[in-house]
């Protein structure tokens, strides 16, 4: 709604008073009853308690906020009910359009009409709640950008900016769907977790660059919100933005008091983008200065070049070699699966503290990533380093780790290399240690393997490498849901470790980026896990392309539809496996295990 219309409407309402406004919403209420009565679950809440108007949300006109609340209510009915068909979705858009027209929101009414036309010919299609929500993203843009559409566009200069991972949490799916849709041209990766408790537990694992929390009126005292902000505050710097409905000063001060970095009333995408980007840039500057891993308290991998520079200097000046050991916890995935990720965090913290305590002051402990650690032993020969590592293995295996009431014991494997050539780059030594670690894992774990030196240009090296490549699986996960990709990747790693193999795991957020990737162009024999419904290109379209070009892929299709005809259709198109959401993880694991086995046949 432009400012002139808003100003004129405001004066008109003031002259007629609240009675006229309530009559409008009474008419609107019956329009909604007409729509809701066609739902099996039926029913519609009144405009507000005791017939009063719902309070204005942020800078939105109260009529816009009220209509948006009704859409939210309907989405929640869809989410807990059966799939809906195209006729029902069109009827919903028609009800929204009629309501918008009555209260003078012509842009919203026009968008609803356009969406109705888009649904022509799709009356038989079954829609999940999430699919319906993504379909109405253009409509949501009209709501959140009402009166400021001209300024709600993200400048093209920012679309190629730095990538960032954004965690969205809280129970406001409409706003989050709008944000993801409006910022789809920005190189940000979004993960949505409605539960504040789950978001707090997943924070270290997801490593977001910023957290956006939607807080409704009355949720300031939620203990899960307090825990989330406290955990974010434990990291060197992780910005948290609270998006709230109330616009009072008291709510804003409460958010800052709890530890938020910014507290804003439900904004349009351009404002949210600018404020979040500013915080991300600040985080990047701080991260460049921070060399300590926030979970374990030891150095992070950015510190490795400094360590190597010092030890290489010792080697050049005194001829004193050093030894690099790459350590990896054995069967760590099983700890996460059986006891949860908080127990996994406790194991990582225990190993880091143990390594610091049982190594010398001149040695360096670094968390390399995940459950891998680097122990760099200064002025130490290979035989001496092996003796140190064997002692550490025995002592750590005897340690008891308390996690969620259980006592755990763990072991680790290690790849060891002696750094005795100062002209070699750091990556050379890390590569050798990684190969030795892989050999230790393949040998059953709880082992120490010494690295074999690479022979440059050796003629007998190529066959060995080719043999390794044949035993190395390739898996592509194509799904627009970051959390789903992460969980499937964890499952793949579990299966790979069980088989004593190695795998290259590639993740893609949509079908188009997968088809344009070097991975696809290589045509390598692989397993492709493909989501049925994705932005830019439907999963079936990607499947058709794979089969038309005769790519050597084993394809597993994922979908939230459980219609047998739809499953048969996908299998006829060339899918090797078909798994429905929500997943039964044992079923997914069994089918994925079969496809991986077929890669070797």
UniProtKB/TrEMBL annotation:
Pfam families documented for this protein: GGDEF, Response_reg
Domain Response regulatory: residue ranges: 165-281, 474-596
Xref: CDD domains: GGDEF (cd01949), REC_OmpR (cd17574)
Keywords tagged on the record: Phosphoprotein
TM region(s), chain numbering: none
Domain GGDEF: 320-453
GO molecular function: diguanylate cyclase activity
InterPro entries membership: CheY-like_superfamily, Diguanylate_Cyclase, GGDEF_dom, Nucleotide_cyclase, Rev_trsase/Diguanyl_cyclase, Sig_transdc_resp-reg_receiver
Record's GO cellular component terms: plasma membrane
UniProt keyword annotation of Glycoprotein present: no
Keyword presence, Ribosomal protein: no
An annotated GO BP: negative regulation of bacterial-type flagellum-dependent cell motility
Gene3D superfamilies assigned to the protein according to its UniProt record, in alphabetical order: 3.30.70.270, 3.40.50.2300
Modified residues (4-aspartylphosphate): 531
PROSITE patterns: GGDEF, RESPONSE_REGULATORY
PANTHER family the UniProt entry points to: DIGUANYLATE CYCLASE DGCM-RELATED, REGULATORY COMPONENTS OF SENSORY TRANSDUCTION SYSTEM
Name listed for the protein in its UniProt record: Diguanylate cyclase
């Amino acid at each position: 709604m432009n400012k002139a219309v808003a100003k004129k409407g405001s004066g008109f309402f003031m002259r007629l008073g609240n009675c006229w406004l309530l009559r409008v919403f009474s008419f609107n209420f019956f329009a909604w009853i007409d729509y809701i009565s066609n739902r099996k679950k039926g029913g519609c809440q009144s405009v507000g308690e005791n017939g009063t108007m719902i309070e204005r949300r942020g800078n939105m006109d109260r009529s816009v906020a009220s209509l948006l609340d009704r859409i939210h209510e309907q989405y929640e009915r869809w989410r807990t009910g059966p799939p809906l068909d195209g006729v029902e979705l069109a009827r919903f858009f028609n009800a929204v359009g009629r309501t918008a027209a009555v209260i003078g929101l012509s842009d919203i009414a026009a968008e609803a009409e356009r969406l109705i036309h888009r649904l022509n010919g799709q009356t038989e299609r079954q829609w999940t709640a999430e699919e319906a929500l993504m379909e109405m993203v253009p409509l949501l843009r009209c709501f959140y950008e009402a009166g400021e559409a001209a300024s709600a566009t993200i400048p093209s200069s920012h679309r190629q900016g730095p990538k960032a991972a954004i965690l969205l949490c809280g129970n406001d799916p409409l706003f989050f769907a709008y944000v993801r849709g409006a910022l789809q041209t920005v190189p940000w990766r979004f993960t949505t977790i409605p539960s504040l408790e789950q978001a707090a537990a997943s924070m270290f694992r997801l490593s977001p660059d910023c957290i956006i929390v939607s807080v409704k009126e009355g949720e300031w005292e939620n203990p899960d919100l307090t825990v989330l902000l406290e955990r974010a505050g434990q990291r060197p710097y992780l910005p948290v933005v609270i998006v709230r409905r109330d616009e009072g000063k008291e709510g804003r001060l409460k958010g800052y008091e709890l530890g938020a970095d910014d507290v804003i009333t439900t904004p349009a995408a351009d404002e949210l983008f600018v404020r979040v980007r500013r915080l991300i840039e600040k985080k990047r500057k701080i991260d460049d200065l921070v060399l300590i891993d926030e979970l374990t308290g030891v150095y992070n991998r950015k510190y490795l070049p400094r360590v190597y520079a010092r030890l290489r200097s010792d080697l050049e000046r005194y001829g004193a070699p050093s030894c690099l050991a790459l350590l990896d916890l054995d069967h760590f995935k099983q700890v996460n699966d059986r006891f949860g990720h908080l127990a996994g965090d406790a194991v990582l913290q225990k190993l880091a503290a143990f390594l610091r305590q049982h190594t010398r002051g001149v040695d360096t402990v670094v968390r390399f990533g995940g459950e891998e650690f680097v122990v760099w032993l200064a002025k130490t020969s290979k035989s001496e380093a092996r003796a140190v590592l064997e002692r550490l293995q025995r002592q750590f295996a005897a340690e008891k780790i308390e996690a969620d009431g259980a006592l755990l014991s763990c072991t680790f494997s290690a790849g060891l290399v002696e750094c005795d050539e100062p002209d070699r780059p750091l990556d050379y030594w890390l590569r050798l240690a990684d190969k030795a670690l892989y050999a230790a894992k393949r040998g059953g774990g709880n082992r120490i393997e010494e690295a074999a030196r690479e022979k440059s240009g050796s003629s007998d090296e190529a066959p060995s490498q080719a043999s390794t490549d044949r035993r190395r699986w390739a898996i592509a996960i194509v799904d627009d849901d970051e959390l789903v990709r992460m969980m499937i990747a964890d499952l793949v790693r579990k299966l790979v470790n069980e088989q004593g193999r190695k795998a290259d795991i590639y993740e893609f957020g949509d079908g188009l980026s997968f088809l344009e990737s070097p991975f696809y162009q290589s045509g390598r024999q692989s397993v492709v896990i493909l989501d049925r419904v994705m932005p830019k290109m439907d999963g079936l379209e990607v499947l058709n392309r794979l089969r038309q070009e005769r790519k050597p892929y084993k394809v597993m299709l994922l979908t939230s539809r459980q219609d047998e005809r739809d499953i048969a259709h996908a299998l006829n198109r060339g899918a090797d496996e078909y798994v429905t959401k929500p997943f039964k993880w044992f079923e997914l694991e069994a089918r994925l295990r079969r496809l991986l086995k077929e890669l070797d046949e």
